[in-house]
Amino acid sequence: MDLFSDLDEIEFLFISIFLLSIIFGALARKTDFCPLGGVADVVHSGNTGRLSMYFFAIGVALFGVTILEALQLISADETRPPYRMSQFRWPAYLIGGVFFGIGMTLCRGCGMKSILNLGGGNLKTLVSIAAMGSAAVLMLYVEGFFNNYFLSWVLPVSPNLDDYGIAQQDLGTISSSWLGIDVSTMRIVIGLLVSSILFYFVWSSKDFLARKDNIIGGFAVGILIVLAFYISGGPIGELANEASDFSDMPQNGMGTQSYTFIRPMGDLLYITSNPEWYVLTFGLVAFLGVGVGSILVSVLTRRFHLVWFSSVRELLRYAIGGTMVGIGGILGMGCTLGQGVAGVSTLSLGSFVDLFALLLGAYVGIRIQKNFMLDHQVPKAD
Protein backbone atom coordinates (compact mmCIF):
# COMPACT_ATOMS: atom_id res chain seq x y z
CA MET A 1 0.00 0.00 0.00
CA ASP A 2 2.87 2.40 0.81
CA LEU A 3 4.25 1.80 -2.69
CA PHE A 4 0.95 2.76 -4.34
CA SER A 5 0.45 5.75 -2.05
CA ASP A 6 3.64 7.30 -3.45
CA LEU A 7 2.32 7.19 -7.03
CA ASP A 8 0.72 10.20 -8.69
CA GLU A 9 -2.65 9.86 -10.44
CA ILE A 10 -1.27 9.06 -13.89
CA GLU A 11 1.25 6.56 -12.56
CA PHE A 12 -1.51 4.84 -10.59
CA LEU A 13 -3.61 4.64 -13.76
CA PHE A 14 -0.74 3.04 -15.68
CA ILE A 15 0.13 0.59 -12.89
CA SER A 16 -3.53 -0.43 -12.65
CA ILE A 17 -3.89 -1.20 -16.36
CA PHE A 18 -0.48 -2.89 -16.46
CA LEU A 19 -1.44 -5.33 -13.68
CA LEU A 20 -4.84 -5.94 -15.27
CA SER A 21 -3.14 -6.58 -18.61
CA ILE A 22 -0.84 -9.20 -17.12
CA ILE A 23 -3.98 -11.08 -16.11
CA PHE A 24 -5.39 -10.53 -19.62
CA GLY A 25 -2.29 -11.93 -21.30
CA ALA A 26 -2.06 -14.91 -18.95
CA LEU A 27 -5.71 -15.94 -19.34
CA ALA A 28 -5.86 -15.33 -23.09
CA ARG A 29 -2.70 -17.39 -23.59
CA LYS A 30 -3.84 -20.16 -21.24
CA THR A 31 -7.26 -20.54 -22.86
CA ASP A 32 -6.06 -20.12 -26.49
CA PHE A 33 -8.35 -17.17 -27.02
CA CYS A 34 -8.05 -16.40 -30.72
CA PRO A 35 -10.72 -15.00 -33.07
CA LEU A 36 -8.78 -16.16 -36.15
CA GLY A 37 -8.40 -19.60 -34.61
CA GLY A 38 -12.14 -19.68 -34.04
CA VAL A 39 -12.87 -19.00 -37.71
CA ALA A 40 -10.26 -21.57 -38.75
CA ASP A 41 -11.77 -24.18 -36.42
CA VAL A 42 -15.13 -23.75 -38.16
CA VAL A 43 -13.58 -23.98 -41.62
CA HIS A 44 -11.37 -26.92 -40.62
CA SER A 45 -13.93 -29.17 -38.95
CA GLY A 46 -17.08 -27.22 -38.19
CA ASN A 47 -16.03 -26.81 -34.54
CA THR A 48 -17.70 -23.67 -33.17
CA GLY A 49 -16.08 -23.69 -29.72
CA ARG A 50 -13.48 -20.94 -30.03
CA LEU A 51 -15.57 -18.73 -32.29
CA SER A 52 -18.32 -18.98 -29.68
CA MET A 53 -15.71 -18.05 -27.04
CA TYR A 54 -15.03 -14.87 -29.02
CA PHE A 55 -18.71 -14.01 -29.25
CA PHE A 56 -19.13 -14.81 -25.55
CA ALA A 57 -16.45 -12.19 -24.84
CA ILE A 58 -18.35 -9.72 -27.02
CA GLY A 59 -21.59 -10.46 -25.17
CA VAL A 60 -19.97 -10.10 -21.73
CA ALA A 61 -18.30 -6.82 -22.73
CA LEU A 62 -21.52 -5.45 -24.21
CA PHE A 63 -23.52 -6.42 -21.12
CA GLY A 64 -20.89 -4.93 -18.81
CA VAL A 65 -20.53 -1.60 -20.63
CA THR A 66 -24.33 -1.32 -20.86
CA ILE A 67 -24.62 -1.72 -17.07
CA LEU A 68 -21.74 0.70 -16.35
CA GLU A 69 -23.33 3.37 -18.53
CA ALA A 70 -26.80 2.73 -17.08
CA LEU A 71 -25.34 3.29 -13.59
CA GLN A 72 -23.50 6.37 -14.92
CA LEU A 73 -20.16 4.95 -13.82
CA ILE A 74 -18.63 5.65 -17.23
CA SER A 75 -19.61 7.27 -20.51
CA ALA A 76 -18.64 5.78 -23.86
CA ASP A 77 -19.67 8.90 -25.79
CA GLU A 78 -16.08 10.12 -26.09
CA THR A 79 -13.66 7.21 -26.31
CA ARG A 80 -10.26 6.53 -27.84
CA PRO A 81 -10.78 5.73 -30.68
CA PRO A 82 -14.09 7.60 -31.12
CA TYR A 83 -16.37 4.61 -31.67
CA ARG A 84 -19.57 6.66 -31.54
CA MET A 85 -18.45 9.58 -33.70
CA SER A 86 -21.21 10.98 -35.88
CA GLN A 87 -19.35 10.45 -39.14
CA PHE A 88 -20.14 6.94 -40.37
CA ARG A 89 -17.02 5.92 -42.33
CA TRP A 90 -18.50 2.77 -43.83
CA PRO A 91 -15.85 2.33 -46.59
CA ALA A 92 -13.09 2.45 -43.97
CA TYR A 93 -14.83 -0.08 -41.73
CA LEU A 94 -15.49 -2.48 -44.61
CA ILE A 95 -12.21 -2.21 -46.51
CA GLY A 96 -10.07 -1.82 -43.41
CA GLY A 97 -11.77 -4.80 -41.78
CA VAL A 98 -11.40 -7.10 -44.79
CA PHE A 99 -7.79 -5.99 -45.28
CA PHE A 100 -7.09 -6.68 -41.62
CA GLY A 101 -8.83 -10.06 -41.75
CA ILE A 102 -6.91 -11.32 -44.77
CA GLY A 103 -3.66 -9.92 -43.37
CA MET A 104 -3.97 -11.76 -40.08
CA THR A 105 -4.37 -15.07 -41.91
CA LEU A 106 -1.07 -14.42 -43.70
CA CYS A 107 0.82 -13.73 -40.46
CA ARG A 108 -1.23 -16.24 -38.46
CA GLY A 109 -2.66 -13.82 -35.96
CA CYS A 110 -4.07 -10.40 -35.13
CA GLY A 111 -2.19 -7.93 -32.97
CA MET A 112 -3.35 -9.57 -29.75
CA LYS A 113 -2.50 -13.09 -30.90
CA SER A 114 0.89 -11.96 -32.18
CA ILE A 115 1.96 -10.60 -28.79
CA LEU A 116 0.55 -13.71 -27.09
CA ASN A 117 2.52 -15.95 -29.46
CA LEU A 118 5.66 -13.92 -28.93
CA GLY A 119 5.21 -14.47 -25.21
CA GLY A 120 5.19 -18.19 -25.96
CA GLY A 121 8.51 -18.04 -27.80
CA ASN A 122 7.26 -17.73 -31.38
CA LEU A 123 9.90 -15.38 -32.79
CA LYS A 124 8.13 -15.26 -36.16
CA THR A 125 5.79 -12.73 -34.65
CA LEU A 126 8.67 -10.27 -34.23
CA VAL A 127 8.44 -9.76 -37.99
CA SER A 128 4.66 -9.40 -38.04
CA ILE A 129 4.63 -7.07 -35.01
CA ALA A 130 7.36 -4.93 -36.61
CA ALA A 131 5.35 -4.83 -39.85
CA MET A 132 2.13 -3.94 -38.01
CA GLY A 133 3.94 -1.20 -36.11
CA SER A 134 5.65 0.14 -39.23
CA ALA A 135 2.34 0.33 -41.09
CA ALA A 136 0.73 2.06 -38.11
CA VAL A 137 3.58 4.59 -37.99
CA LEU A 138 3.13 5.23 -41.71
CA MET A 139 -0.59 5.81 -41.22
CA LEU A 140 -0.34 7.85 -38.02
CA TYR A 141 2.93 9.77 -38.09
CA VAL A 142 3.95 10.30 -41.72
CA GLU A 143 2.38 13.63 -42.57
CA GLY A 144 -0.15 13.50 -45.37
CA PHE A 145 -0.06 9.73 -45.98
CA PHE A 146 -3.31 8.80 -44.25
CA ASN A 147 -5.11 11.92 -45.43
CA ASN A 148 -3.95 11.78 -49.04
CA TYR A 149 -4.24 8.06 -49.70
CA PHE A 150 -7.20 7.09 -47.53
CA LEU A 151 -9.30 9.88 -46.05
CA SER A 152 -9.33 11.64 -49.44
CA TRP A 153 -11.72 8.99 -50.78
CA VAL A 154 -13.29 7.80 -47.53
CA LEU A 155 -14.63 11.13 -46.26
CA PRO A 156 -16.53 12.27 -49.40
CA VAL A 157 -18.75 9.17 -49.30
CA SER A 158 -19.07 8.94 -45.50
CA PRO A 159 -22.31 10.50 -44.25
CA ASN A 160 -22.24 12.65 -41.13
CA LEU A 161 -25.24 11.45 -39.15
CA ASP A 162 -25.38 14.78 -37.33
CA ASP A 163 -26.65 16.30 -40.57
CA TYR A 164 -29.72 14.08 -40.18
CA GLY A 165 -30.29 14.93 -36.54
CA ILE A 166 -28.44 11.88 -35.19
CA ALA A 167 -25.69 12.98 -32.84
CA GLN A 168 -23.78 9.69 -32.67
CA GLN A 169 -23.58 6.40 -34.54
CA ASP A 170 -24.36 3.98 -31.72
CA LEU A 171 -27.51 1.90 -32.10
CA GLY A 172 -29.08 3.50 -29.03
CA THR A 173 -28.82 7.01 -30.45
CA ILE A 174 -29.94 5.95 -33.95
CA SER A 175 -33.00 4.08 -32.66
CA SER A 176 -33.80 6.93 -30.27
CA SER A 177 -33.97 9.38 -33.17
CA TRP A 178 -36.40 7.06 -34.97
CA LEU A 179 -38.62 6.10 -32.05
CA GLY A 180 -38.48 9.27 -29.98
CA ILE A 181 -37.44 7.34 -26.87
CA ASP A 182 -34.68 8.53 -24.51
CA VAL A 183 -31.17 7.61 -25.73
CA SER A 184 -30.05 6.09 -22.42
CA THR A 185 -33.16 3.90 -22.32
CA MET A 186 -32.59 2.65 -25.86
CA ARG A 187 -28.94 1.88 -25.08
CA ILE A 188 -29.99 -0.24 -22.13
CA VAL A 189 -32.71 -2.04 -24.09
CA ILE A 190 -30.56 -2.76 -27.15
CA GLY A 191 -27.46 -3.59 -25.10
CA LEU A 192 -29.30 -6.14 -22.97
CA LEU A 193 -31.17 -7.53 -25.98
CA VAL A 194 -28.11 -8.03 -28.18
CA SER A 195 -26.01 -9.48 -25.36
CA SER A 196 -28.85 -11.88 -24.46
CA ILE A 197 -29.08 -13.04 -28.09
CA LEU A 198 -25.34 -13.62 -28.15
CA PHE A 199 -25.48 -15.57 -24.88
CA TYR A 200 -28.31 -17.73 -26.23
CA PHE A 201 -26.45 -18.76 -29.36
CA VAL A 202 -23.11 -19.20 -27.58
CA TRP A 203 -24.54 -21.45 -24.89
CA SER A 204 -26.37 -23.44 -27.56
CA SER A 205 -23.00 -24.54 -28.97
CA LYS A 206 -22.02 -28.01 -27.78
CA ASP A 207 -18.43 -27.35 -28.88
CA PHE A 208 -18.32 -24.26 -26.68
CA LEU A 209 -19.57 -26.15 -23.63
CA ALA A 210 -17.28 -29.13 -24.30
CA ARG A 211 -14.18 -27.17 -23.29
CA LYS A 212 -14.14 -25.21 -20.03
CA ASP A 213 -11.36 -22.91 -21.31
CA ASN A 214 -13.86 -21.57 -23.85
CA ILE A 215 -16.07 -20.38 -21.01
CA ILE A 216 -13.18 -19.06 -18.90
CA GLY A 217 -11.45 -17.31 -21.80
CA GLY A 218 -14.57 -15.68 -23.18
CA PHE A 219 -15.75 -14.44 -19.81
CA ALA A 220 -12.29 -13.25 -18.79
CA VAL A 221 -11.61 -11.27 -21.96
CA GLY A 222 -15.07 -9.73 -21.92
CA ILE A 223 -14.90 -8.65 -18.29
CA LEU A 224 -11.34 -7.34 -18.69
CA ILE A 225 -12.49 -5.18 -21.61
CA VAL A 226 -15.13 -3.74 -19.27
CA LEU A 227 -12.64 -3.23 -16.43
CA ALA A 228 -10.26 -1.39 -18.76
CA PHE A 229 -13.09 0.97 -19.71
CA TYR A 230 -13.84 1.47 -16.00
CA ILE A 231 -10.21 2.11 -15.07
CA SER A 232 -9.73 4.66 -17.86
CA GLY A 233 -13.18 6.25 -17.67
CA GLY A 234 -14.09 5.84 -14.00
CA PRO A 235 -12.72 7.55 -10.86
CA ILE A 236 -9.10 6.48 -11.50
CA GLY A 237 -9.19 7.76 -15.06
CA GLU A 238 -10.95 10.99 -14.11
CA LEU A 239 -8.28 11.82 -11.53
CA ALA A 240 -5.54 11.03 -14.03
CA ASN A 241 -7.20 13.16 -16.71
CA GLU A 242 -7.45 16.11 -14.31
CA ALA A 243 -3.80 15.72 -13.34
CA SER A 244 -2.84 15.67 -17.02
CA ASP A 245 -4.94 18.73 -17.84
CA PHE A 246 -3.28 20.78 -15.10
CA SER A 247 0.22 19.55 -15.91
CA ASP A 248 2.81 21.66 -17.71
CA MET A 249 3.30 18.66 -20.03
CA PRO A 250 -0.11 16.98 -20.57
CA GLN A 251 -0.03 13.20 -20.85
CA ASN A 252 -0.63 11.73 -24.30
CA GLY A 253 -3.35 9.18 -25.02
CA MET A 254 -5.67 9.92 -22.09
CA GLY A 255 -9.41 9.29 -22.08
CA THR A 256 -11.97 6.50 -21.82
CA GLN A 257 -10.62 3.46 -23.67
CA SER A 258 -10.07 -0.27 -23.54
CA TYR A 259 -7.86 -2.84 -25.23
CA THR A 260 -6.72 -2.26 -28.78
CA PHE A 261 -3.40 -3.39 -30.20
CA ILE A 262 -2.47 -1.80 -33.53
CA ARG A 263 -1.92 1.82 -32.53
CA PRO A 264 0.15 0.82 -29.46
CA MET A 265 2.45 -1.16 -31.78
CA GLY A 266 2.93 1.97 -33.86
CA ASP A 267 3.61 4.04 -30.74
CA LEU A 268 6.14 1.48 -29.51
CA LEU A 269 8.01 1.45 -32.82
CA TYR A 270 7.95 5.23 -33.08
CA ILE A 271 9.32 5.61 -29.56
CA THR A 272 12.05 3.04 -30.29
CA SER A 273 13.17 4.92 -33.39
CA ASN A 274 12.71 8.37 -31.82
CA PRO A 275 13.85 8.10 -28.18
CA GLU A 276 13.78 11.86 -27.80
CA TRP A 277 10.01 11.65 -28.42
CA TYR A 278 9.47 9.45 -25.40
CA VAL A 279 5.85 8.96 -24.39
CA LEU A 280 3.97 6.35 -22.40
CA THR A 281 0.29 5.84 -23.13
CA PHE A 282 -2.53 3.81 -21.65
CA GLY A 283 -2.66 1.61 -24.76
CA LEU A 284 1.07 1.00 -24.84
CA VAL A 285 1.17 0.04 -21.15
CA ALA A 286 -1.74 -2.34 -21.72
CA PHE A 287 -0.02 -3.88 -24.74
CA LEU A 288 3.21 -4.49 -22.81
CA GLY A 289 1.29 -5.95 -19.85
CA VAL A 290 -0.42 -8.50 -22.09
CA GLY A 291 2.98 -9.59 -23.37
CA VAL A 292 4.29 -10.04 -19.82
CA GLY A 293 1.24 -12.09 -18.87
CA SER A 294 1.71 -14.35 -21.88
CA ILE A 295 5.38 -14.94 -21.04
CA LEU A 296 4.56 -15.80 -17.43
CA VAL A 297 1.88 -18.37 -18.22
CA SER A 298 3.92 -19.86 -21.08
CA VAL A 299 6.88 -20.46 -18.77
CA LEU A 300 4.78 -21.74 -15.87
CA THR A 301 2.84 -24.17 -18.08
CA ARG A 302 5.95 -25.21 -20.01
CA ARG A 303 4.50 -23.95 -23.28
CA PHE A 304 7.43 -21.65 -24.03
CA HIS A 305 9.10 -22.93 -27.20
CA LEU A 306 11.35 -20.95 -29.52
CA VAL A 307 10.12 -21.03 -33.12
CA TRP A 308 11.61 -19.43 -36.24
CA PHE A 309 10.89 -19.33 -39.95
CA SER A 310 11.39 -22.37 -42.11
CA SER A 311 11.89 -20.34 -45.31
CA VAL A 312 12.33 -16.84 -46.66
CA ARG A 313 8.93 -17.18 -48.32
CA GLU A 314 7.31 -17.69 -44.92
CA LEU A 315 9.10 -14.63 -43.55
CA LEU A 316 7.82 -12.51 -46.43
CA ARG A 317 4.30 -13.80 -45.87
CA TYR A 318 4.43 -12.69 -42.25
CA ALA A 319 5.80 -9.28 -43.25
CA ILE A 320 3.09 -8.75 -45.88
CA GLY A 321 0.37 -9.96 -43.53
CA GLY A 322 1.57 -7.73 -40.70
CA THR A 323 1.61 -4.71 -43.00
CA MET A 324 -1.96 -5.43 -44.08
CA VAL A 325 -3.05 -5.81 -40.46
CA GLY A 326 -1.43 -2.48 -39.54
CA ILE A 327 -3.01 -0.57 -42.41
CA GLY A 328 -6.38 -2.25 -42.00
CA GLY A 329 -6.36 -1.70 -38.24
CA ILE A 330 -5.75 2.03 -38.50
CA LEU A 331 -8.15 2.47 -41.42
CA GLY A 332 -10.91 0.52 -39.68
CA MET A 333 -10.12 2.14 -36.31
CA GLY A 334 -9.39 -1.08 -34.48
CA CYS A 335 -8.63 -4.78 -34.41
CA THR A 336 -10.39 -7.99 -33.38
CA LEU A 337 -10.35 -6.67 -29.80
CA GLY A 338 -10.40 -2.90 -30.36
CA GLN A 339 -13.37 -2.92 -32.73
CA GLY A 340 -14.67 -6.48 -32.47
CA VAL A 341 -15.13 -6.48 -28.68
CA ALA A 342 -14.46 -3.04 -27.17
CA GLY A 343 -16.09 -1.16 -30.05
CA VAL A 344 -19.14 -3.42 -30.28
CA SER A 345 -19.62 -3.06 -26.52
CA THR A 346 -20.37 0.65 -27.14
CA LEU A 347 -23.06 -0.36 -29.68
CA SER A 348 -21.21 1.53 -32.42
CA LEU A 349 -22.69 0.73 -35.81
CA GLY A 350 -19.25 1.04 -37.38
CA SER A 351 -17.87 -1.54 -34.98
CA PHE A 352 -20.52 -4.04 -36.02
CA VAL A 353 -19.66 -3.39 -39.68
CA ASP A 354 -15.95 -3.74 -38.97
CA LEU A 355 -16.51 -6.97 -37.03
CA PHE A 356 -18.37 -8.45 -39.99
CA ALA A 357 -15.60 -7.34 -42.36
CA LEU A 358 -12.87 -8.75 -40.10
CA LEU A 359 -14.50 -12.17 -39.98
CA LEU A 360 -15.21 -12.11 -43.72
CA GLY A 361 -11.59 -11.22 -44.43
CA ALA A 362 -10.41 -14.03 -42.16
CA TYR A 363 -12.63 -16.53 -43.98
CA VAL A 364 -11.46 -15.36 -47.39
CA GLY A 365 -7.82 -15.41 -46.28
CA ILE A 366 -8.10 -18.98 -45.02
CA ARG A 367 -9.82 -20.17 -48.18
CA ILE A 368 -7.26 -18.69 -50.57
CA GLN A 369 -4.29 -20.25 -48.74
CA LYS A 370 -3.94 -23.94 -49.51
CA ASN A 371 -1.37 -24.45 -46.76
CA PHE A 372 -3.16 -22.56 -44.00
CA MET A 373 -4.47 -25.64 -42.22
CA LEU A 374 -0.99 -27.17 -42.07
CA ASP A 375 -0.29 -24.77 -39.19
CA HIS A 376 -3.65 -25.24 -37.52
CA GLN A 377 -4.86 -27.39 -34.65
CA VAL A 378 -8.31 -27.38 -33.09
CA PRO A 379 -8.11 -27.37 -29.27
CA LYS A 380 -9.27 -30.66 -27.77
CA ALA A 381 -12.41 -30.89 -25.68
CA ASP A 382 -12.05 -31.61 -21.96
List keywords for this structure.
single chain; 382 residues; mainly alpha; 67% helix; 0% strand; globular
What does this structure look like?
The structure is a single chain. The chain is mainly alpha-helical and 382 residues long. It is built from 18 helices and no strands. The radius of gyration is 20 Å and the shape is globular.
The percent range for helix content is: 55-70%
Number of strands: 0
**What shape does the CA trace take?**
globular
Q: Strand portion, in percent? A: under 5%
Reading the helices and strands in chain order gives HHHHHHHHHHHHHHHHHH
Task: Extract low-pLDDT stretches.
Answer: none
> Radius of gyration from the CA trace?
20 Å
What is the rounded distance between the termini? 40 Å
Helix/strand structural class: mainly alpha
Treating each run of at least 4 consecutive H or I residues as one helix, how many helices?
18
- The average pLDDT is 94
List the helices and strands and how they pair.
Elements: H1 2-5, H2 9-31, H3 35-45, H4 49-70, H5 90-106, H6 111-119, H7 124-141, H8 145-154, H9 171-179, H10 183-203, H11 206-209, H12 212-233, H13 235-245, H14 262-273, H15 282-300, H16 312-331, H17 338-343, H18 349-367
Helix pairs in contact: 2-12, 2-13, 2-15, 3-4, 3-18, 4-10, 4-12, 5-16, 5-18, 6-7, 6-15, 7-14, 7-16, 9-10, 12-13, 14-15
